[in-house]
Structures are given as structure tokens and as C-alpha cells.
Design a protein that fits this description.
The complex is a heterodimer of chains A (about 260) and B (about 140).
Chain A: H1 4-26, H2 31-51, H3 53-56, H4 62-89, E1 101-108, E2 121-124, E3 137-140, E4 143-151, E5 156-160, E6 167-172, E7 178-183, E8 189-195, E9 205-208, E10 224-232, E11 239-245, E12 255-259
Chain B: H1 2-19, H2 25-37, H3 42-56, H4 63-81, H5 87-104, H6 110-139
Helix pairs in contact in B: 1-2, 1-3, 2-3, 2-4, 2-5, 3-4, 5-6
């Protein structure tokens, strides 16, 4: 190769420069640089994605759309029935809290190839300047999408509930069985750590148990995570588990709402 | 002048990677630059590409730059002893480095992405070979 004698010094210089950048980045000194890059690229990226990727996705048929709509209605009714029962029995009272929803546009889905790989995260066009904070829940109607895990001035990163990094306390809306929903990374969740004495049925709806902190940030209770597809219950195991699929396809989302 | 063209190419690759298909276009572009040009100047372009990608993927600045630098460093090191300007090496280096990239940066469906990357590299290499053949015929 040519210019061999400069190779090693240049390599070392570059490595030292990157190390310096890394240190600066850790202390937040390059926040402005990151913001500027994101502000320039993300709007263009969103436009390009809408022009290409969204057109490649097969359009849902009217029956599929109707099915999603009916599923949402059934989930809402099941939630209502369970709440009514709980209130009637005075075992559980839940004060309705006024929640402010902030609409946001999905401007990126890092790491997702349409119809090949499922997104783990979404990038939204709202950030610190819009009053968004970490750990806020992101929803579409009553379906929980994920939580805000990283944030910059004008954009935020949502880790989806189906991501392998996601785990949340949940309950079966119909039977009241509680467990932990862990993302499996391929568009499904696993409701795990459910006691063998509890009951889980296929087609039951799974909702969040609530994980808000003292300042009110976090996932509010009662948001639907999905529907149970199959139950894995073996007497030899300590716990039973169930596979849960969300009611909507996250890779088709273009607008979501942040629960403030 | 050449560095500006390289930066422009890398910007296009980053844009494609972030917006349309998450195939490591920037890594492939940098590898091609490194193999074809054989100039250490490509290290600076690698740092630039890494910073862009880290900002757009909400990761700590410098992570991807280090990966790119190490990968290019290894290619340069290999190029000291062996011939690197051949199709097999380009294909092999791209696949191996893409695999490491997917693994390190937490990509899903590793093998699906790898097959897609391999397909794109093959199409790219076939196109280059075809262009060279046409150019050779035109000369004669």
C-alpha cells in the first residue's frame, strides 16, 4: 500500500482524537453538535422514509383494518368491565387522572428493514424543547407503544415494548393474573413470571399494571399491551408464561402520542 | 478535492442507512475507499461518518468511529502482507465487518440483514465488473 510510513501515526492520531471526542461526548459537551446533525438529517430522513419505505409495505386490507378496530373496542370494553367489577367490589378504586397527550411524528425506525426485521426503537420529532422527559409513555389510542429512553433538544428515542431491552409489570385484564411482560425483539412479548395458580387464556387482553414514580412519570396503569396468543403452562415449571402480540403493527406507525 | 468527494459519498451512505434501509452502507463505502485508494486520509472520513451515525442513532459519540478506525486499520494491516484488491477479499471483508457491526450495535435479525448486505455487495461488485468490461471493450 502507498503512504505506509504515515499510516501508523495517522491511525494513532485518529484514535486519540476519537477518544477525546468520546470524553467530550460523555460530559455532554457535544450536545450542540448532536442536536445540529439531528435537526438537519431527521426531517429529510422522515421525508425519504415516507416516500420509499412506507410505499413498500403491503397495505392492510379493509378486513384487517376492521379487525384492528374491533380488537381495540373489545380491549376497551374488557378494561371497562374489569374496572367496573373492581369498583363494585370495592377492592380497587382508580381515580381517573387527567392526562395530557402530545402528538408526535415518527421520523425514524433505526435498524428496521420493512418485512425483514422489526423495529426495536422509534425516533420522534419531539424533545426537551417540547417538554418531553425521560420514561414518559408513548401510546396510540389505548395501545402502549413504549417509553422514552433517550432524549435530545428536538428529538427523542422510544424503546418499544417489544424490544429485548423492555420489561414491564402487567396484568391479564380478564382474569387479573399478574406478571412481567418482556419484549422478545421480533414484534412479540412474553408475559412471564405468572403464578401457576393464576389463569391465563388465549385471546385475553394484557394491560400495564402501572410503573409511575413520585413525579408521575412512567407508564400509567390500564394501557393495553396486546392480546395473548398462546399460553405455556407446565406443572413442572415454577411459573407459566404467555406469548402476547400487540394490537397494532409498530412498523406502520407514523403518528403517536406521548403521555405527559 | 478527493476528501470532499469522499465526505459527500459517506454522507449519502449515512443518509441511506438512517432513512431507508439499515444496511451498513457507510461501512461498505469506507471499506471500498480504503481498499481502492490505500490512503490513510480515509481514517478522517471514518471519524466523520462515525460521528454522524452516533448522533443519529442516539449513541455516545465516538463508538462507531472507533469501530470504523479499527476495521480500516485491520484492512491496512492485511494489505501490507497480502493483495487486497480482489473481489473475494472485498466481499469477505464486507461480510465479516458487517457481521461484527450488527453484533456490536445490537441489530435485530442478524442473518437476514447479513444476507441483504451480501446481496447488495454482490450487485455492487458485479456492476463494477460490468462497467470495467464495457470500458475495456470501448478502448479496443
Amino acid at each position: 500500500m502507498r503512504e505506509r510510513k504515515y499510516l501508523f501515526p495517522v491511525f494513532l492520531f485518529c484514535l486519540a482524537a476519537v477518544f477525546f471526542l468520546f470524553i467530550l461526548g460523555r460530559f455532554g459537551a457535544l450536545f450542540f453538535l448532536e442536536n445540529s446533525i439531528q435537526t438537519v438529517i431527521f426531517p429529510l430522513s422522515s421525508f425519504a422514509r415516507n416516500q420509499t419505505t412506507q410505499k413498500l409495505l403491503p397495505k392492510p386490507t379493509s378486513i384487517q383494518e376492521e379487525n384492528v378496530k374491533l380488537n381495540r373496542q373489545v380491549a376497551a370494553l374488557a378494561q371497562l368491565a374489569a374496572d367496573n367489577k373492581a369498583l363494585r367490589d370495592q377492592f380497587q378504586t382508580e381515580n381517573p387522572t387527567s392526562q395530557e397527550l402530545l402528538p408526535a411524528i415518527v421520523v425514524g425506525m433505526p435498524g428496521a428493514i420493512p418485512n425483514i426485521s422489526f423495529p426495536e426503537t422509534l425516533i420522534l420529532d419531539k424533545g426537551l424543547s417540547d417538554g418531553i422527559r425521560l420514561d414518559e409513555a408513548v401510546v396510540d389510542t389505548n395501545q402502549l407503544i413504549g417509553t422514552i429512553t433517550q432524549i435530545s433538544d428536538h428529538f427523542s428515542l422510544v424503546t418499544l415494548i417489544t424490544s429485548t431491552k423492555s420489561s414491564l409489570s402487567v396484568k391479564d385484564v380478564q382474569t387479573g393474573a399478574i406478571g412481567v411482560a418482556k419484549g422478545q425483539g421480533n414484534g412479540v412479548l412474553l408475559m412471564d413470571n405468572v403464578l401457576l395458580s393464576d389463569t391465563l387464556h388465549a385471546n385475553d387482553f394484557v394491560a400495564s399494571l402501572g410503573s409511575q414514580n413520585l413525579s408521575g412519570k412512567g407508564v400509567v396503569p390500564g394501557l393495553i399491551l396486546g392480546k395473548i396468543v398462546s399460553v405455556d403452562k407446565k406443572p413442572s415449571n415454577l411459573f407459566q408464561s404467555a406469548q402476547v402480540t400487540p394490537l397494532i403493527a409498530f412498523d406502520r406507525l407514523s403518528r403517536v402520542f406521548i403521555v405527559k | 478535492m478527493r476528501i470532499f468527494i469522499w465526505i459527500l459519498l459517506v454522507c449519502c451512505a449515512v443518509f441511506l442507512e438512517v432513512s431507508i434501509v439499515p444496511i451498513p452502507f457507510s461501512l461498505i463505502t469506507l471499506l471500498y475507499m480504503c481498499i481502492i485508494s490505500e490512503e490513510p486520509l480515509v481514517f478522517f472520513v471514518a471519524i466523520f461518518a462515525g460521528i454522524l451515525l452516533d448522533s443519529l442513532f442516539f449513541q455516545t459519540l465516538g463508538l462507531r468511529s472507533v469501530f470504523f478506525l479499527v476495521t480500516l486499520g485491520l484492512v491496512f494491516l492485511y494489505g501490507r502482507k497480502f493483495e487486497v484488491k480482489n473481489t473475494l477479499f472485498i466481499f469477505g471483508a464486507t461480510i465479516v465487518s458487517s457481521f461484527a457491526y450488527f453484533l456490536l450495535f445490537g441489530y435485530q435479525n442478524l442473518f437476514g440483514q447479513l444476507i441483504a448486505t451480501g446481496g447488495i455487495v454482490l450487485v455492487g461488485l458485479a456492476s463494477i465488473a460490468l462497467i470495467r468490461k464495457i470500458q475495456a471493450r470501448m478502448v479496443y
